[in-house]
TrEMBL record:
Family (UniProt): Belongs to the glycosyl hydrolase 13 family.
Gene3D superfamilies per the UniProt record, alphabetical: Glycosidases, Golgi alpha-mannosidase II
Keyword presence, Metal-binding: yes
Subunit structure: Monomer.
Domain Glycosyl hydrolase family 13 catalytic span(s) in chain numbering: 273-632
MF (Gene Ontology): alpha-amylase activity; calcium ion binding
UniProt protein name: Alpha-amylase
Keyword tags: Carbohydrate metabolism, Glycosidase, Hydrolase, Metal-binding
Domain named Alpha-amylase C-terminal beta-sheet: residues: 621-680
Keyword Hydrolase included in the entry's annotation: yes
Superkingdom assignment: Eukaryota
Amino acid sequence: LTYCLSYLLVDLGHLKQHEGSNAQPEETTHGGKGLTGKHISGFYEEFPIIKSVYAQNFVTVTVKRDNETHKRLVEFDTDIPGEVIIHWGVCRDNSMTWEIPPEPHPPKTKIFRQKALQTLLQQKADGRGNSLSFLLDSEYSGLFFVLKLDEYTWLRNLENGSDFFISLTRVEQRGSTQDLDKVEQQKVDDKSSQADGIISDIRNLVVGLSSRRGQKAKNKVLQEDILQEIERLAAEAYSIFRSPTIDSVEASVDLDDPSIAKPVCSGTGSGFEILCQGFNWESHKSGKWYVELGTKAKELSSLGFTIVWSPPPTDSVSPEGYMPRDLYNLNSRYGTMDELKELVKIFHESGIKVLGDAVLNHRCAQFQNNNGVWNIFGGRMNWDDRAVVADDPHFQGRGNKSSGDNFHAAPNIDHSQEFVRNDLKEWLCWMRKEIGYDGWRLDFVRGFWGGYVKDYLEASEPYFVVGEYWDSLSYTYGEMDYNQDAHRQRIVDWINATNGTAGAFDVTTKGILHTVRFQLTCICNMEFTFATQALERSEYWRLSDEKGKPPGVLGWWPSRAVTFIENHDTGSTQGHWRFPYGMELQGYAYILTHPGTPAVFYDHIFSPLQPEIAKFINIRRRQKIQCRSKIKILKAERSLYAAEIDEKLIMKIGSEHFEPSGPQNWIVAAEGQDYKIWELSS
């Protein structure tokens, strides 16, 4: 088990401690009279942070069964330099209570306050870190430990605020002569528990600084401020969540056969989903969108879509639905509640599941407070200003500070309030039952902690969920940086905060696809005559990161990456970040052949692009490409990107010529301007 330790070393100054254990009581005078025998307890002073330094290290803990001694061999390995001490103990029968095992103990071990063992790790021969190995009796079920680097630096599991815990009940045989068939059978038996526990494993493997689940002392303002600062800094760091950790987990789940594909956990679907966004920014204008969309259900099903994302259903100040007011009023500009029910029924009859667009971050109020501020809510959820976060300057909330970024156009909801969470869980469950929604698209999830999302999803038990975590990519002097790890890290951090119960739109991949080929328009002065010149620039090398993997979320956590090239915000009549014109089919050739869950925009489906998009979808389904498919990048050059997926499909985009090599017989399945797809001949 490898822990990737990304932690902040904080120098808080020295705590001034007076009167050690051997100090004598002092006399204290008060009002001129001596009071003797009163012992002054130690005191401390708090100093400001004077230096913050990020460090990235790993600790690997391996547990094996030693057949010779019938004990368990525990091995620690870390690249942390200098002296590293582990405070450790064991537990039995999953009691989660620290115990000190009997002697013999490892070398350089001391008993610490009769509660734990303190062992100095041994420096490696090459000087690159430290290691330790020792034996434990088989009666113990778990091992606890924390790391001590120096007097002021301790490392614990910041993901959940607890000590590190290693299970000792499932270990590999060492020197075993067990029959190989039995070993393989054991692996098969383990897979069911692997599928159920995969997200729990990820949480144990990843120490996320941006997680706020470990913040228990909410009344300690200093501690809260430090954690918020760490969260802000973590958003800029890309070394918290490393791809090898995710890759090892993804590789353990094989979903090649759709007959055995099962959801890893609530909200993640089967792995073979193809998503259609079923509206654009203008869809509300007819007032009958639900009816119009229902007429497209059979066509969308025949094209191969398995999920449709429907627009926000609630009463809203804005006609598009993203400024919700009365959440139980489902008569919107898109149609009536009855028409919505009929729409969901029609899609279900066509074999397509339906996502509701849930806006949980903010809510528009129906009434003003005594100061004339709109922060009093009506309807079935008749909240007062306690439901509004305290640090939103526009709406005078009396709740706690926001756990995310504020959306300044409407009151930001305080999800830390239990009554708010209970009401939202009840509403989501009501929507599932009353309307028949199969899952959610979650709007503006940057605004509140992903742990609350986990709570909502565990209550509503959706089939599929995708969150919109949107922020800017990294640029230097106006040009996009090659390394976008910091950007995708923030998205992965949010997914991890939900405990993996939701996916997220892969904004990183969209942004990088934008830049692989574009035109620069230059103005030239030739003998006092001005002219414009278009210079084409190709940068397909951006589609491979430094480790030869896809550079977006799909390169780190493909099963949670929902890839797309356009939506109602970026395209349609808003056009906030429109995909380069003429490159749409290259974009779809990429996302519809790659791992992740691809999403196709409504305006592109019902356009001249449809025949080729349908062809791409057909290839994906025929070759059983799914969210965890294996990818091998073959070329990532100036004018060419080529990749092999699951060893049965090869694709290329870019103007440079490319043909598959090797003894296999590859057949062209789709071809167009600057894109080509081959299938392996059966």
